[in-house]
Specification:
The chain is mainly alpha-helical and 174 residues long. Helix content is 53%, strand content 7%. The longest helix has 17 residues, at 66-82. The protein is flat, with a radius of gyration of 20 Å.
């Protein structure tokens, strides 16, 4: 086996059995920065141009994820191509967000529903949130709360609390 190399990639190293993980050399990659993400977006615009003033908002809507940035670019390119637009400006971006249901920070429906629930009822337990959303508590914790916590929209201290930034996002989503 000394002539073989194995290469593997994962965003969840916990899923790799410990016995295997201990025998691997781990290489952690840095997250993409905003410049790299907007470069990915622009590269996938299929000949369109994007006004520089929109780049920061577009990166936020792309959840700092290169795959989502590529999808956003594809949606924007499709929208603009069908209307013979050559540039994505503020007015076009507003319409693209409306047509493709792009929300502030790229929030997903379940994330917004959790924020609205906390806004309506106040601090809540994971169990009550899970019941309201109809999802397992592990799903809420791993897939919904993580992004909201990372963006400062909720805090957790036993119960889940909506932050002032979370309240602002709720107003933007209405």
């Amino acid at each position: 086996f000394n002539q073989f190399s194995f290469l593997s990639a994962s965003t969840n190293s916990e899923a790799i059995p410990i016995m295997l993980r201990e025998r691997l050399r781990r290489i952690d990659l840095s997250p993409y920065n905003d410049v790299e993400l907007i470069r990915i977006f622009n590269k996938n615009l299929k000949g369109l141009k994007c006004e520089t003033e929109l780049e920061s908002e577009i990166v936020k809507c792309g959840r700092k994820n290169p795959r989502i940035m590529t999808a956003l670019a594809g949606d924007a390119a499709e929208y603009c191509k069908n209307r013979n637009f050559r540039v994505i400006n503020a007015a076009n971006w507003l319409q693209i967000k409306r047509v493709f249901n792009i929300r502030p920070l790229g929030l997903l429906s379940n994330e917004i529903e959790l924020l609205r629930y906390l806004n309506d009822v106040g601090p809540s337990t994971l169990t009550s949130i899970s019941a309201k959303l109809g999802l397992a508590s592990t799903t809420v914790r791993r897939e919904i709360e993580y992004y909201l916590l990372a963006n400062g929209l909720i805090t957790i201290d036993g119960k889940r609390y909506l932050t002032p930034q979370g309240r602002e996002i709720i107003r933007e989503c209405q």
